[in-house]
Amino acid sequence: MPVAFYAYRLRNEGQRALGNYAPVQDFSKDIYDRCREWENLPGVYCASVAPGYAYADVPDIGMSVFVVTNNDMTLAEKVAQDLSGLAWSLRESFTEPLPDAEEATQLAMKHVAESNSPVVIADGADRIGDSTYMLKELLAQKAKNWVIPCITDPKAARWLEDNSKVGDKVELIIGGWYDEFSGTPVEVNGTVEYLGRPTYTLVGPMGKGARVREGFVARINLGDNRHVVVAERMLL
Question: Cys-Cys with 151: which of 38, 175, 191, 214 at CB 3.0–4.6 Å?
Fold first, then answer.
């Protein structure tokens, strides 16, 4: 069956700002909901928006719109222009200020105290995983019942593999080793809960069915239901 494919990249001045998104908001969902609306119309096979890569900060890796129709270039362009227009109209919403580590920890603790429900604090930095800002704040503010899912530290992971076993009490310094943007190393004291190289099967759309074997991983219990994972390399 013949198809018409139309690709459109927002190249307006200021496009870079679109990548500095605040993922806690619903603005991206508004755009993807519009995609689904268009796909429900006859002749529109696919409407998709690629948000781009904010940390590259160049127009060539900005937000892009892709539309496939039943050999109808006019319709494809109409859909793409509509989606790009919606994204552009929301551009200021994508640049709302985000809380720093101190404020994020305060907000999370307040929410848990008021609602008794889980909170996910997402570090927006695109790093190698050695950042210690959230770990330091959770410790400084004496938060309880949390887990840091990964502090990447090959040296600390190697020391744990060579010198500890499950159940051991350990004291070591982790994270903050790569550069000045990583934060500073943090000393932790706790009990080793897990040591090993996890293997699992991917079940999502990306790489579905593939077997993954991680590098060495250790999970340390710091008490008060506080846990931190130290990994040889950044976990998927």
Answer: 175
